[in-house]
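User: Predict the structure for this protein chain, please.
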Amino acid sequence: MRILGVIPARGGSKGVPKKNIKLLGNIPLIEYTIKDAQKATLLTKIVVSTDDPEIALTAEMAGLKPPFLRPIELAQDTSTSLEVIQHALAFFKENRELFDAVCLLQPTNPFREHGFIDEAIEKFINSKADSLVSVLPVPHEFNPHWVFEKNETGVLKIATGESTIISRRQDLPQSFHRDGAIYITKTEVLEAGSLYGENITSIESNPKYYINIDTQKDWNKAEDFLINNKL
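Assistant: Here is the predicted structure, written as structure tokens:
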């Protein structure tokens, strides 16, 4: 299976300005994900999708020169991952390179366990699913069966729509949340306008590596991770 690895990195980050090229430890943030992708044996090709020449240069210095700059209209706060992936696929299609699936690797999740990308791809291929997402367990206190939503009159309703709450923690079904480290989707599903399709499988991440950098607090956490793990 031909799989395109896409690393999206726009220049207009606000929570941590210029975070994709900001030094985390002694290397730019984006380079962590580039290195992980380069070590994966099951990615056919890897591309950094960016609108920013400075990010493009940083990627090139890490050994991954972007073949295009993403249009400004696809680098806004409202731009979606699906649009970014579709643009990359269209670029390669115009250059007669076709892929069966895309593996989205967000640089804001800089730490992945060694071999995790290949493990996820292998599981995706064997599953025959439309897509795969990396996940982590939801703590029981945030389980959707214990989460409430307010209706228009302010009355609380169980988020799952049930009329009776599950009283015992031991009876709660296990639930998961996306951790953002890996998304893999069939090209036909992406071209049809969905990042997930109808049949979604998953791979559980190692919680030790979970850091999703959006704020300065997240960045400080990533710096502490490097120090504590001597990376």
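DSSP finds six helices and ten strands in the chain.
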